[in-house]
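Hi team,

Filling in the usual template for the complex we talked about on Friday. All components are listed, including any nucleic acid strands or ligand strings, so the model treats them as one assembly.

SUBMITTER: L.P.
PURPOSE: interface mapping
COMPONENTS: two
RESIDUES: 484
SEQUENCES:
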Amino acid sequence: MRYKCEIAYIGTRYAGFQSQINALAIQDVIEKSLEVIFKEKIRIIMASRTDAGVHALAQVFHFDATEYDTYRLKGALNHFLPDDMHINKVEIVDKNFHARFLVKAKTYRYIINTGESDPFLKDRALEIHYDLDLDKIEDCMKLFIGKHDFASFNTTPYSDVKDQVREIYDFRMIQKGKLLIFEIRGNGFLKNMVRLLIGALIDVGRNKKTIEDIKKSLAAPNKEKERLNVAPGGLYLVSIEY
Amino acid sequence: MRYKCEIAYIGTRYAGFQSQINALAIQDVIEKSLEVIFKEKIRIIMASRTDAGVHALAQVFHFDATEYDTYRLKGALNHFLPDDMHINKVEIVDKNFHARFLVKAKTYRYIINTGESDPFLKDRALEIHYDLDLDKIEDCMKLFIGKHDFASFNTTPYSDVKDQVREIYDFRMIQKGKLLIFEIRGNGFLKNMVRLLIGALIDVGRNKKTIEDIKKSLAAPNKEKERLNVAPGGLYLVSIEY
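RESULT (copied from the run log):
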């Protein structure tokens, strides 16, 4: 059977979603729990490789295993998983379902706290204590909407990803008290792309860069220019659409 | 000089605000930081003795010490305090100001998560997985508004608090997605009173008690009847008015 799962997690304690050498990843924790339940090694395929410290409200992964009641499986997984993870949903899906290849859109959120420091937002938002020109930020956000080669906003070496064109369907900013909440929806995101986009917006908002600078970075991919990779704790994977 | 401070904290790691034997209280942590700054033992007086695990968005305390610039004092305190506390405000006040005796009103919030478990709300909300009759809860909330002897909703032994009459100015419930957010404002609260009131509302909402039962508890103080002391992590001291 192929299972599709939706999981929420606080990324703070982990070296990202994907397994790696010498560091605990969220994937390792999930696979260990699945091994206890199914009594065999199980490999999961995730929709999105969130980085160290990045959170998820609804990450998706799939795996193949023997038959198991989905309600009981959800309960068993949540029993074994630590408190900073929670499986929201388990369903049995068609053998052709693939958590990564079939993604149609992903939505990310980035939270900036522009007010007083807040212990409840520790590792959950970026704190900014200087003034930001929100009109300029909103103008700049419009540049990113549509299909662009986002190579300037990618920390993976050039050779690794051939096609760096991604389409951003929607990018909006909501002010909620002292918080600035950015939501971006697109067909895919390069490594660190959301955080580099937010970094560029911050640079524009504090007049360290002009909108023209950002236009140039988009027009002529240059990996040296857009390097403000903001704190991972402000980033949330919100949803995956298939 | 007399200083008035406003502090936010996550109560999870502490045995409550007030110092006690053999357990770390928030008061101890603040007084230790003040001692480092002022190089003398300083005793603080808090507005509200929040219990173990209870949070605050704006607790107030005062203390007397030598002259110090308030902006620098705020910075120094936040430097020494751990990440789960943050001083929002420091002001110099009149010698007659008293953080506890002069309180005119306090507002508390209680958060219940009625939906899927949420790692981001761990120790920050009460999870309830059974149905609640919200109309009954709202009817019951109205009973508490006004001046009442709340002895049935007090865990302190009878003899310790002579006057158990408190006035509730306002009590409201807001539904926000899967959350039920209760806000209660009154001239004072007895030990565990907010949590016992919320516990009574839950009992009414799930039909374990009737509104008549609660009326009786209010009319004839009885410390055996209202004992559902809900999780401290759902409780927030929101503001203190002088």
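MY TAKE: Chain B has two domains: 2-93, 105-241. The interface with chain A takes residues 8-10, 55, 78, 83-86, 88, 116-120, 122, 124 of chain B (CB under 8 Å).

Thanks, L.
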